[in-house]
Amino acid sequence: MMNDIRNLRTFAALVQCFDLKFDVLSAVDELEEQVGLEFDFQREARSMDRIANSISAYYKARPPVFVPRSIPSLVTRRVLVMQFMEGTPIMQLGDEMARRGINPSGAMAKLAKQNILKSLTEAYGHMILRDGFFQADPHPGNLLIMEEGKVALLDYGQVKEFTNPIRLGYAKLVVAIAAQNPYDIDQSFKELGVVLGKRVESDPKSYMQMASNLFDTKLPPGRTRAGPFGEDALLQKVQVKNFPKDLFFVLRTIQILRGLSVGMEVPLSCVENWKNIAKEALSVAHEEMYGFNIKATGKGFRDPVWERRKRARRLWFLQQMAKELTALIF
Question: Domain ABC1 atypical kinase-like spans what residues (predicted)?
């Protein structure tokens, strides 16, 4: 498999030079790191239990998704035994509805699909933005629909953990995209290490569109499908010169969720669903840093890192003014 990765790297470098306007080599770097870890079942058991514990602790008796727990005495590096989850694979959901006398295209089915996607999106908002540790492979084969429309999320071989700066930087990006503020998007891109081939001042609309294409599941108006690498994609006009490898799996997760949204014919914006979670994550970080909650001050949302930089600049300016005044007086 590692030989395949090396061949993929060579091919990616070639395509990136002549055709694809995206930093795909960073994605290959991240994939190479993850492949070596995916077949360690002890690690997978720890990851699965960690996510199960986090969701259970936060949501108590009403988790958005159900995560199986490992059976510790039956886990080795080569064997993983976990709780049994009974449900219908999501790709067979239409057939199961028809079997139960429910019209798969009817209003009841549509509501059920909306609830399924809402639950899955809520779970990913929690994992990515509150925890910074998430299952990075929500493809249909890893999703079971249980009784009463509850969702079971399986397979924790591919997980990703964010550092706090990346988690909070991504939270700021979510807030900026939700507000459709190109200059805050640009600031978040800089903080995360995303580099586009255009300056925000030259084309703010493209900045907003690119951020949405990469990091939101919502389709552009009038579109029934939208992949970031399609022939008519914005990527053909705006190059992504650098894309940090740490964000590759969140990009992949969002594109899979978009595919589910399109396949189930249920419009979904993960940014709209995540913006309050993102603000909460930033508020908690601010409270931990400064000892008070920004919501309680009545001043609205303020970014702790940006505010610290502003205060530092103001302090430096006042110090310089004081020095100059002292020199004039004495």
Answer: 2-185
Residue 1 CB coordination number (10 Å): 10
Which residue do the tokens 């300016």 mark?
A: 317
N-terminal to C-terminal alpha carbon distance within the chain:
74
Which tokens belong to 263? 């396949």
Neighbours of 140 (CB within 10 A): 15
As given in the structure block, the two tokens for residue 167 are 């988690």
Per-residue tokens: 41: 């079942």
Place of tokens 């009784």: 147
Give strand pairing partners of 145.
88, 151
What backbone torsions phi and psi does residue 65 show, to the nearest 5 degrees?
A: -135, 155
Quick one: pLDDT at residue 229?
57
Say what the pLDDT of residue 304 is.
47
- Which residues sit opposite 143 in a β-bridge? 153
Which sign, positive or negative, has the C-alpha torsion 25, 256, 158, 123? positive
- What backbone phi and psi angles, to 5 degrees, belong to 199? -85, 145
Domain boundaries, the chain: 41-161, 162-248+258-305
pLDDT for 230 equals 58
Q: What is the mean pLDDT of each run of 10 residues along the chain (330 residues)?
A: 58 55 69 75 97 97 97 95 97 92 91 96 98 96 95 96 97 97 94 89 86 90 61 67 91 94 93 97 86 50 50 59 54
CA distance 238 to 182: 15
Residue 157 in contact with residue 34, Cβ under 8 Å? no
| 221/199 Cα distance (integer angstroms) | 24
For residue 86, what is the enclosing H or E element? none
d(CA 61, CA 285): 26
